[in-house]
Fold:
Amino acid sequence: MEHELKYKDITEIIIGAAFEVHSFLGNGFQEVIYQRALAWEMMQAGLKFAREIEQDIYYKDLEKPIGKRRADFVVEGKVLVELKALVKLEDVHLAQALNYLKAYRLEVGLLINFGSKSLTFKRLVLTAKSAKSPNP
Structure:
């Protein structure tokens, strides 16, 4: 029995759109340029998304948030998409994206990097273990 990836249909469309953007623009632009182009491609693909939505960050039992974070995209209310325009993704970027998944209470995310010569991406899944770990 083949294990089906959660929200595979959505993530495949997003990744395809990202490849289209990178194919046209290449690397070397600021992140916001890729964000705007990816928004256009996802709109063309019929995906519903919110861009730069702000989320409160809570710590332990504190009632007031200790800060806010803006995700690049939340697609179809199910998939978090975080963009980078760096020469190389580092472990800290993966940890950051997993923390955003926790903050947004989402299970699946994509970390997409437009800054290297070839488009790179990581598919992230928040498990019960990574949700409890302070350093994913």
In short: Residues 132-136 have pLDDT under 50 and may be disordered. Residues 8-131 form a domain with the Trna Endonuclease; Chain: A, domain 1 fold (CATH 3.40.1350).
